[in-house]
Amino acid sequence: MSFKSVVVVSNRLPITVEKVEKGQWVAHSSSGGLVTAMGPVLRNRRGKWIGWLGAQEMPDDASLNNILSKSSEELGYTLIPVDITSEEIEKYYYGFSNEILWPLFHDFLSNCNFDPQYVNVYRKVNRKFAQAIAEHTGEADYIWVQDYLLFLVAHELKEIGAQRQTGFFLHTPFPPLDIFIKLPWRFEMLEAILEYDLLGFQTERDKRNFLRCVRHLLKFNATGRGNIKKIVTKKGEVHVGTFPISIDFREFAKSAATEEVMETLRIIRRNHGNKQLILGVDRLDYTKGIPNRLRAFADVLARYPKMRGKTEFIQIVVPSRVDVDTYQALKQEIEALVGEINGLYAEEGWTPVYYMFHPVSRTELLAYYRACEIALITPLKDGMNLVAKEYCASNIDGNGVLILSEFAGAAAELHNGALLVNPYHIEHVSQSIYQAFSMELDEKRERMKKLRRSIYKNDIFHWVNSFVRTSVKNSNNVPEVDFFVPMP
Ligand code: GDG
Predict the structure, then answer these.
(1) 3-state secondary structure of 317
(2) Which residues have a catalytic role annotated?
(3) Which residue puts its alpha carbon closest to atom 33 of ligand 1?
């Protein structure tokens, strides 16, 4: 048999729908790295993407069909929506996924709400995804499932008797045994994960944590040398590997040089004078370490008075889950810290922290990447952190400095050029900010060259191809010639 087509399955489809005037619906395409990378693979084989439309209110049938066929035609592959009710979203998405798995997998055990009502709905929605796959794909299709919201899909496919080759990629970290073991449904979850044919993790650390949980809790040992390990279970065999996700390097480097970005860059430089700019860009989330970062910035201003008036910290926070108490409290903590620092140090012509609580356009984001001499990326834990890679790819002048948390997946690849910090060690982060502020141009260039070379070599196309190649190699299926993404 040969693989006929690739089918990507993720919680969200790569479009969002919006109701505009007179009850009309419009679709907007998403532009993340995953969408860019999967596009050519899916187009080549007339593939499919299965996911939730993300709308609280569903369009009527006629509008839905219209939107889906138009978007599918534009994208060059078929979009298949999974219908999830708002009650299911509450318990599967906000509940089990984001109040249990998200904090647990980022080592925030105290943020977990192990509400027993959530798990059944999580199972039910994973079953819905499996049913959509069974209905819209065939045995010769390759099913590639994304992220922690859909751990049970391979298991549910088997339960309903649908034979498929499946791969799974985890975008978040995988926690150490001591933390994973606290999950009340740890055995069920681990056994279900092992029902995929290939499992991909962001880093060696995550793969090692996973294999240790499997060994300790289920008594299965992994075999094999090198990246890809094999585990034989009672139900079959599964391969496990590390596949660090990346970005479309060339696209970022090209876009960063456009006239539109240059124009915005000039405006930013004009508005901030000749200060050394430090940048932070994050979704509002307790894993991103924004308060610690602000404390480190306050510390560096206190320790090195000569930095006052000469540096500014631009922090962009993209609103997320603001109606949840923990997130609201985090927002207040951030805003209180920004107020304190500005209150203490601001003077005529200088505001130390320039804070935005809204997303910026892609053009503005690229212009900020170019304008800021230092990127301060200090998550307390992160699967990868694409902002770190985007900052370097957009740094076409080659003189930026990346300060990066040891606990971001990206640190595994970028440790040679970045200044690595422990985000919990405020004084160390503060020292690193000072080191970056006073670094000689030659050293900056040397470091940035290493960073850019590594991201260029291991870009998003490399990520897709290595995952798909491993799937093909470890299955009995012969690949079709155009199964891989053509390298740009
Ligand atoms: C998960 C894992 C892993 C941010 N602000 C703006 C904006 N962004 C874009 C960035 C970047 C993306 O959002 C954020 O990506 P991250 O990787 O940092 O984080 P998560 O969303 O948490 O993603 C993570 C990732 O999956 C991939 O596997 O790296 O660890 O948690 O692309 O550019 N874009 C625009 N305006 C903004 O204000 N236009």
Answers:
(1) strand
(2) 171, 382
(3) 387
pLDDT at residue 430 greater than cutoff 80: yes
pLDDT digit string, tens, across residues 111-122: 999 999 999 999
Rounded to an integer, what is the distance from CA 270 to the centroid of its chain?
32
Q: Which residues, judged by CB distance below 6 Å to any ligand atom, belong to the binding site of ligand 1?
A: 32, 171-172, 245, 281, 283, 316, 318, 359-360, 362, 365, 382-387, 390
Q: What DSSP line would sit under 37-50, residue for residue?
A: HHHHHHHHTT-EEE
Ligand 1 atom 38: residue of nearest CA: 359
Question: How far does the centroid of ligand 1 lie from the alpha carbon of residue 385, in Å?
Answer: 7
Mode of pairing for the β-strands spanning 142-146 and 6-12: parallel
Residue reference for tokens 């099913």: 143
Residue pair 163/143 in contact (Cβ under 8 Å)? The answer is no
- pLDDT value of residue 481: 43
Return the amino acid letter for 24.
Q
Does residue 125 contact residue 102 with C-beta atoms inside 8 Å?
no
Model pLDDT, residue 25: 87
**Site of tokens 């994304």:** 146
For 245-254, what is each residue's pLDDT tens digit? 999 999 999 9
Cα separation of 395 and 253, whole Å? 7
Calculate the alpha carbon distances from 431 to 301, 341, 345, 459 in Å: 11, 18, 19, 31
First to last CA, the chain: 29
Q: Is 231 helix (H, G, I), strand (E, B) or coil?
A: strand
Query: Looking at ligand 1, which atom is closest to the CA of residue 33?
Result: 32
**pLDDT tens-place string over residues 182-236:** 999 999 999 999 999 999 999 999 999 999 999 999 999 999 999 999 999 999 9
**Amino acid at residue number 342:** N
- Under 8 Å between Cβ of 334 and 317: yes
Atom nearest to 169 CA in ligand 1: 28
| The dihedral sign for the CA sequence 260, 262, 264, 266 | negative
Report the percentage of the chain scoring pLDDT > 70. 97
Q: What is the pLDDT of residue 429?
A: 98
Contact 124, 88 (CB under 8 A): yes
Q: Residue 262: which residues within 8 A CB-CB, separation 6 or more?
A: 367
Q: What angle do CA 284, 287, 292 make, to 5 degrees?
A: 90
Q: How much is the pTM?
A: 0.96
